[in-house]
Each structure stands twice: as structure tokens, then as C-alpha cells.
Amino acid sequence: MKLAAVSAIALPALASAHGLRDVHHARQAPAASAPAASSSAPASAPAGSAVTGAPAAASSAPSLTFTLASTNPSALPLSLIASGATSQPTVAATTTFASGTVPTYLPNAPALPNPANLVVANYPALDKTPPTDSPEVQQWIKEVQASGVSIPNITQTVAGGCPANPEAVADQSRCWWTCGGCTTDDDVDQCPDKMTWGLTYDDGPALYTGDLLAYLDTVNVKATFFVVGSRAISYPALLQQEYMAQHQIAVHTWSHPPMTTLTNEQVIAELGWTKKIIKDVLGVTPTYWRPPYGDVDNRVRAIAKAMGLQTSIWTRISPTATFDTGDFDIAGGLTSSTQVLNNWESIIGNATQIDHGFIVLEHDLFQQTVDIATGYILPDALAHQPPFKIEPIVQCLNKPLRDAYIETNDNSSNPIGMSSTGLTGSSAGGAHTASVTTGSGSGSSAEATGGSGSSGSSGAAANGNGKNGAMGFASPNSLTAIALAVVSGAIAFAL
User: Fold this and answer.
1) pLDDT in tens, 412-467
2) Helix 135-145 to helix 264-282 angle, to the nearest 10 degrees?
């Protein structure tokens, strides 16, 4: 990965996305020659936007260090985008689709299934790693074994992040992104073309995803949504709306665990059930996934590859600086909306200096994450000069959207079934390499099959082209569990 010169100065350590982490990492170091403002065309923010949008517990939160190029005229004041903010009306799917509707924008796409036919009892409990003794998981295990991909014999990590796993940190052969930023040639963490932003949102669909979809539609911008299986079964109409609006749908596990702490069978269960619910709602099976917290090593990568999934993370420019806005932490009171915008300004300052495009970590799980995106981050990005090209990940890689799904991939630009090449890894600083040896058998991927309403198809790993990379993590705390439990409670009531 080639990098332009960037400042080695890091921001103070912050609480990272998805709850407190045991090893904090800096969000972004300001770019060495980045201007004070994100654009040469500053614009006034809505009334109140200059007020620190921090909860009472974060009274020392910083003010904005730059001038936004543009804001949404209807944006909430930053002072109201805070922990404990008054809840706004939730947004249901604004468009519903009849069973059998065909997404004409996607060549050879199957018709949409009827979400009303989903039987919730046929799926695992929400927000818990699924059991591994079900017929579905046992079948996926067999498919992984037959895929031709060799799974490295790497021990699980334990909760607690890098300090709790000194042997794993020292084991460079595992290529653990969490502690050191090691990536493989197949990892997606950047777009190849300069000034291209692979736009992504994690953890939904959720109560305010509809607001985000409405804004993206008004500005004609498409994104990649990394979907949690427990949310997909809870909001199938929103998932269909995302898909039919030509956004890319990708896998983000069933219950959002740190994946390197799981057994091989549990990893398969997390990915398999998420693939299955997405297919049962949309009729297509994703070929991309993102590990929660960016927690991935060569064992987890290999399992995902055997299941036809390409590992996708977000951009990292040094061992301590990643393109993570920190938006997730607003709802929990761990950061302020102004700090998130300062993180964003540092991100785009660095993005204009590197010689490739970039991917940023953002979320659609909370009201606050949607409000900061639609009110401030997206308008600022759209007004940036020179302009950013904003696309879903698959398209920022210069591949057609059809490559995002097994059923529509014609193998011409993103062959599925090529499992003979090894994965070579490198750290963020280029200090070490690692490899996963893969077999050459034809094999079939662990396609999400079995259970009601599922029709399986086969294919092996979705291979990526070029170099891409990563960030850091540690174990989740109760914030994530509480957040998901709150959403799940609303869902259970609705169901």
C-alpha cells in the first residue's frame, strides 16, 4: 500500500466504535498539509451546529476545528445529536414490494421472496451466536470442508483485545488485523482510484435506516450496507428497500461478535445464518462481508473465503490511525457529535493526500449516527472540491453491482470458484507477512442453504483483486448488547 506523507501525530486515544475497547486507537492524525477547512467553499451550518453536541458527561468535548463545506438545511443542531437525545419518530419502509417483483437493474436477478412467509421460529435467537448442532450449520460445515480452502490451525483469541492475547499478538503468521493491522492481498480496505469513497454503513437495518435511505435517494448516492442477520429478520421490508434502491447488501454476521474469539463452527454459524436470512428476504446471496470491530485473522478469513465471502474492512493509514468516524459512540455518551465531525475532517484531509481511494466506518443503527451522516458528513462530502466519487464498495473496486451476489455474478470480472491462490499478508507498517494455503479443488461454497424458504446454490470463494487493508479492535462491552437489545425489543413487539 502506497501512502502519501501524513502526519505521525495522533489524536488523543478515544473510545472506539461499538463500545469501549481494551486497546484504544487514535481515530485520525491530521494530514500534514491538510487545510483547516474541508473545502475552499465554506458554508454556514444550521443554527446551533457550532454548539458542542456532547452529553452532560462529556462537557469538555471539543468544538469544531474547521468549517463545513455544506450542511443539510434540515439538519438537527449538533447540540441535539447527543446521548440521551429526544427520540424522533422512527421510519418504516416507505416502499414495499410485492412478492415476485424482479429487480430489473440487476441482470438475471431472481424475483423477491415474500417476507410474510418468514417463520421467525426457524431462525436462531436474536443477537446470540447461533448453536452449531442445527441441520443447517452442520450442512454448511460440510460445504466448508468440501470447498478446497484450507483452514489454518489458529487458536481462538479471548475477550480483552490485544493485552489479553500476547501470544496471538506475537504470532505474525495469523495476520490478525486487530493487533498490528495485518492485511492480506484479498482484504478490501480501500478503493483503487484516488478521490473515490466506498460508502458503507454497518449494523442495520434499524429504526432510523429509513431516514438515511430517503436522504441517499434525494442526492442519488448509493452505499454498501453491512447487514446484521438479527436486524435483517427484524426489518425485512427495510432490507428489501435498500436492495431495490440499488444499494449493495453485504454480510455483517448474525449477532455481531468479535469473530476471532469464536470456534470454526461458530464462525460458520454466524456467517451462514446471515447469508441465509438475506437470501430468504432478497433472493440473492452476498459475496462480501465485514467482520464486526474489524476483528479478523487468517483463520476467520479462510472460513469466510470457503463460504464465498470476501473480507472487507476500512482504510487504515498507520498502525494507530484508521478511517473510523467514531459515530457509534455518540449514542452511548462516549464521544460528541463535534468530535465525530473533527474525526471526519481529519479523514478527508488524509483522503485527499493518499494515492488511492478510501473506505470509512459508519453506522445506521442509531438515530444519532443517521443524523450526523445526513445532516453533516454527507452534505460536506458532496460539496467537497475536488469532488469525491461516492460508490458502494463493489463498484469502487471497478466491478459491476452484479458481482455483489452469487446468483447474479457471471464470473467474468469477479470469478467465484477460484480457490487455488494463497493469501499473503502484511502489517500496516509492512513489517511482516503471513499466508493461508488454499486447495485447488472445485468444491462448493458454504452457501446459506436449508431451512424454510431457502433454495441453495453453490459456488466457491469470491476472490478480490489487488491490495486492500485494515484497523483495530478489542472486545465489545455492554453498550453493544444494550443497543441491540433495545432494538430487538422494539422488533419483538412489532412482530
Assistant:
1) 666 554 433 334 455 443 333 333 333 322 333 333 333 333 333 333 333 333 34
2) 110
Query: Which amino acid, 172?
Result: Q
How does 166-202 read in b/e, with b if 16+ C-beta sit within 10 Å? eebbebebbbbbbbbbbbbbbbbbbbeebbbbbbbbb
Calpha distance 85→406 (Å, rounded): 41
Annotated active-site positions, please?
202, 363
**pLDDT of amino acid 477:** 37
DSSP 410-471: -SSSS-BS---S-EEEE-TTS--EEEE--------------STT--------B---S-----
Low-confidence ranges of the chain (pLDDT < 70): 1-61, 412-495
Q: Which residues of 64-99 are buried (b: 16+ CB within 10 A; e: fewer)?
A: bebbbbbbbeebbbbbbbbbebeeeeebebeeebee
- Whether the CB-CB separation of 252 and 202 falls below 8 Å is answered with yes
Give per-residue pLDDT as tens, 163-175.
Answer: 999 999 999 999 9
The DSSP H or E segment spanning 127 is: none
- For residues 489 and 368, give the distance between their C-alpha atoms in angstroms, rounded to a whole number: 19
Nearest to 308 by CA among 73, 138, 121, 147: 147
Instruction: Please tell me the pTM assigned to this model.
Output: 0.78
**Triad 248, 345, 68: Cα angle to 5°:** 95
Range 365-403 burial, b when 16+ CB lie within 10 A, else e? bbbbbbbbbbbbbbbbbbbbeeebebbbbbbbbebbbbb
Average pLDDT for the chain:
78
Instruction: State the Cα–Cα distance between residues 186 and 292, nearest whole angstrom.
Output: 18
Distance from C-alpha of 482 to C-alpha of 227, rounded to nearest angstrom: 18
